[in-house]
Design a protein that fits this description.
Chain lengths: 677, 271
């Protein structure tokens, strides 16, 4: 009973709002929900506040602020979410995606980590996130022993690691002005988004300014970091400095006047680069102006914008850990910051896009000759594809591809010496793969789990014994497939509306006499399915089949449960719970757990089994030792990835390496740009 | 001891569904209809386009590959460019079409592929000339009249429009003067089958673009990204193994993971 009700509430209750695809693209569109750029000024009017009009709930003004996963329907003015952010999680858990970073792999990692943290803190989202060996994960390699892949990227281990180990790798984005990293002469308001100069303290008014740093440094992994400041009140002289500085720079002067500090000042429009003498740069700025400040970590250059206009490169050779910073000097001076919670006035997205175009052009012009000499690009790709097809057991495709490549090569020969395009290896693979049982993958992909189990046991009897977690996942998938069929039959039976009542009754009826009663919350109105006999044959048939299949499914569920009940592993328990959650819905296809029924969920199961079979098949296969090394790198002790997969893995690590300090890699999101067709 | 880089590589998980999508995209884009059909079935993917529709591209490519340029040009001119170019349904296309020039091309090309692309048209005609020359020089005392006629009627009028055209034409005509079995490398390369491949690829790209598709498969970007990223990482002096093996060869020495440390391995390091 307790378990049912607890996860039923998880399934149907509020936390489901955190369930969203983990690709960056999946949530970035939410930014569009924010007020259009032109309307940003309105946000300073108290009237715009969605409910209370209170400053304390400022976060509500930014529907995008919680944009990690709020679905469109809940995003706008969702009171619930607003409270959640301000209450339970606190500001540190707030995550938003600045528009220009919506495709950033770094921000995607932040989002994944954020999600992982939420689920780890026991907020109950885990069953439905794509993490943690969930059955719905689309990552083929997730298994129950490894908490893993949310989707792609490098952050998979975050759940298990100590926060510190990845603390540096995943420096968060600045979100607000710091409450403590400031001088007392400055007051931080509105959840850290506004700062106001309240007084010079005592002593020498002329020399004492007060500055504040943001809560976090600008992460170089962004490639470009950008924020905007709206001057709410310029005070008497507009002595406001906007820029950035290192963590240890004294805060009693405006940004730019000290070493390791850079700023643009409103009173004279001058730039200050680590010294107290400035140089002419742009216009002065004053009340209602919006000043933007950006750093391109690839080039090491800083720039400013004013009211949406680029003012040009301001600084070069920017180095070190730098924080957004603002300083003021006269009473009344008051500014508000936008770190990307709401749309920017300046079109920073285009700057980002231009930067990406440059890099993409460079990549497109790169020669791949060094990857695998002497193969040229075309031959290399042919070899990679052929090897992948063979390695992963796409036998028919491998054969067809081989033929087409050979035909192509033959046409090109025209009597000259042949430069066969690296496809000889294919023959070997074909031979290796001419083994029975390769219909197994197809069977799973078609949802025929029984057939897959039968074939696997017949041809590779040890595979399921040695890979218990694969066996478990197959069994769970079988249950899901049965539920799926039930759901389909239900739709069929319901196509005749007059019978829907009796079907509802049937559903309850079935549960009424069954084992799951202790876990089910039943409707009260139990009817008996007495009017079967009145039905037309076809519909009656569908009803009958539905009834039978539902019973079968329940029975299978019992078996499954009793078989794995004793398994103490958290992943197994969770997967079981998730699977059985299908039972909570009369028509799971139209419920919040509908994603479990997606045929795409078959893919990881099929791939996992396939890998295990490959491993099994090559064990003892008479290959020279060096060839076996390829399939079994010693340190892994399991079948290795295909070369194409290896190439992707290497690329991911390489891109990460060249992006961590703000280099070119920061502008690349492999999953988003190179692996999504 | 395995290099830490390799260990990090091992920890990366790449979704097979993503790789499969890249493969299918490649098979369709580069014109392997039979493999594409089988793969869609075996990997259970619903292809975004009708696989049959790539047949005409394949036929044009085969014609170019076997040197039948006349047929290829006729087939290209028969293609009906789809007018749905502006309603590009794939959201990803903007990330791929990297330069504004390409986007312009997308809009302009539907008129007629070769008319709107003089460079491509010239490349095809030039290849046709090469094939005619190949024919007449491959036999002793072959008749060079067809080649000469073709050059004067088809290529010469176009050559003045572009200095590169002129240079290409002159270089090609030189093939008539020198004996085919003793050519200097730049001339020899004209007779190499790879020229057919290059032109065929360009034609394929132009057709794809005219149909509102990406001109190249993602796969090409992917391998280039891999090469580029390694280059950048080495420039930045990142800690990498000497060589990053893909594991493509079965009969080559094993990966750089240090599985074998015998003499053979040391030797291969030296070479």
């Amino acid at each position: 009973m307790p378990r049912r009700s607890s996860y039923a509430s998880v399934v149907s209750g509020a936390p489901i709002i955190y369930q969203q695809p983990s690709r960056a693209g999946g949530f970035s569109h939410l930014l569009q929900q924010g007020p259009a750029a032109g309307g940003y000024l309105q946000q300073h009017q108290p009237g715009i506040h969605s409910r209370s009009g209170s400053r304390a709930l400022d976060i509500e003004m930014y529907p995008g602020a919680g944009s990690i996963s709020v679905p469109a329907s809940l995003g706008r003015g969702s009171n619930h979410f607003g409270q959640t952010n301000n209450g339970a999680f606190g500001a540190t858990h707030t995550l938003f995606t600045p528009s220009y970073l919506r495709n950033s792999s770094y921000v995607q990692k932040l989002a994944d980590a954020h999600r992982a943290r939420l689920s780890n803190h026991g907020y109950g989202f885990s069953t439905h996130s794509s993490n943690a060996g969930s059955l719905s994960t689309s990552s083929s390699s997730a298994n129950l022993h490894k908490m893993a892949p949310s989707h792609r990227g490098m952050t998979y281990d975050i759940i298990e690691k100590e926060p510190q180990t990845n603390g540096e790798a995943l420096m968060p984005l600045p979100t607000r002005w710091s409450d403590h990293d400031k001088l007392s002469g400055i007051d931080v308001l509105a959840d850290g988004l506004e700062v106001r100069f309240i007084g010079p303290g005592k002593s020498n008014q002329d020399h004492d300014a007060a500055a504040v740093r943001a809560d976090h440094a600008m992460p170089p992994q962004c490639g470009i970091f950008y924020y905007e400041v709206t001057i709410i009140n310029r005070g008497k002289e507009g002595l406001i400095g906007i820029g950035f500085c290192g963590p240890n720079v004294s805060l009693n002067r405006l940004p730019g006047w000290e070493p390791d500090s850079w700023g643009y000042h409103g009173d004279d429009g001058r730039l200050f680069c680590c010294q107290s003498s400035g140089k002419d740069y742009g216009p002065q700025f004053s009340s209602n102006d919006v000043v933007g400040c950006g750093v391109n970590f690839r080039t090491g250059c800083g720039f400013f914008t004013k009211n949406g206009t680029m003012l040009g490169t301001a600084f070069r050779d920017i180095k070190g850990k730098i924080f957004p910073a603002v300083g003021m000097k006269k009473p009344g001076e008051h500014v508000r910051v936008n770190f990307g919670q709401s749309p920017f006035v300046f079109d920073i997205d285009s700057v980002m896009a231009t930067e990406k175009e440059l890099i993409d052009a460079e990549i497109a012009a790169t020669s791949v000759a060094s990857l695998h000499p002497p193969l040229n690009e075309t031959s290399l790709i042919q070899a990679l594809v052929a090897q992948y097809l063979a390695h992963d057991g796409y036998v028919e495709t491998a054969r067809a591809f081989g033929e087409e490549v050979r035909t192509e090569a033959a046409a090109l020969q025209c009597g000259r010496q042949s430069s066969t395009s690296g496809s000889e290896a294919k023959e070997d693979f074909d031979a290796i793969n001419r083994q029975p049982g390769l219909g197994i993958r197809t069977a799973i992909l078609e949802g025929d789990i029984d057939k897959a189990l039968k074939y696997t046991n017949a041809y590779y009897p040890t595979v399921l014994r040695d890979n218990e977690q694969i066996y478990f996942r197959l069994r769970c998938r079988k249950f899901i497939e049965m539920s799926r069929q039930c759901s389909e039959l239900l739709t069929l039976a319901r196509s005749s509306p007059k019978h829907s009542d009796s079907l509802d009754g049937l559903h309850n009826d079935l549960y009424d006499d069954d084992v799951f009663e202790q876990e089910m919350e039943l409707d009260d109105q139990v009817q008996n399915g007495s009017d079967w006999d009145r039905m037309e044959t076809e519909e009656g048939d569908a009803h009958m089949r539905y009834k039978n299949l539902t019973e079968e499914t329940l029975h299978y569920g019992q078996l499954l449960q009793s078989e794995f009940r004793g398994d103490g592993r958290k992943e197994v328990k969770r997967a079981l719970e998730e699977t059985f959650s299908l039972l909570a819905y009369e028509d799971p296809k139209n419920s919040v757990v509908a994603h479990l029924l997606e045929p795409s969920g078959r893919v990881p199961v099929a791939e996992e089994l396939n890998s295990a079979i490959l491993g099994e098949r090559f064990r003892g296969f008479p290959l020279p030792a060096c060839q076996l090394c390829f399939f079994f790198p010693v340190s892994l002790g399991k079948p290795s990835s295909a070369a194409l997969e290896r190439l992707c893995q290497q690329t991911e690590v390489l891109v990460n390496d060249i992006g961590e300090d703000g280099g070119v890699g920061a502008f690349i999101n492999i999953g988003h740009e190179f692996l999504s067709c | 001891m395995r290099h830490s880089f390799e260990r990090r590589v091992d920890d990366i998980r790449i979704s097979k569904a993503d790789i499969n999508a890249v493969i299918l995209d490649y098979l369709i884009n580069e014109g392997y209809p039979s493999a594409a059909k089988k793969f869609a079935a075996e990997a259970n993917i619903q292809p975004a386009v009708d696989i049959q529709s790539i047949q005409e591209r394949v036929e044009i490519r085969s014609a170019i590959h076997r040197g039948d340029i006349q047929t290829a040009i006729e087939n290209i001119n028969e293609l009906n460019p789809q007018t749905s170019v502006l309603s590009m349904s794939k959201p990803g296309i903007f990330f791929l079409v990297t330069s504004t020039l390409d986007i312009l091309a997308l809009i302009i090309v539907p008129l007629k592929i070769l008319d709107s692309n003089p460079t491509l048209h010239f490349a095809l005609l030039r290849l046709q000339l090469v094939e005619l020359i190949r024919e007449c020089t491959s036999v002793p005392n072959g008749d060079i009249t067809p080649a000469l006629n073709f050059a004067t009627t088809q290529l010469a009028p176009r050559a003045p429009t572009n200095p590169e055209f002129l240079e290409d034409l002159e270089r090609t005509m030189a093939l008539l003067i020198f004996p085919p079995d003793n050519l200097v490398p730049p001339l020899a390369s004209l007779l190499d089958p790879s020229l057919r491949q290059i032109v065929a690829n360009k034609v394929n790209e132009a057709i794809l673009v005219s149909q509102g598709a990406r001109k190249e498969p993602k796969m090409r970007d992917l391998v280039r990204l891999r090469a580029w990223a390694e280059q950048k990482a080495r420039e930045a002096k990142k800690d990498l193994p000497l060589a990053l093996e893909l594991g493509l060869d079965l009969d080559d020495h094993p990966t750089s993971s240090g599985v074998t440390q015998g003499n053979g391995d040391a030797e291969s390091m030296m070479t």
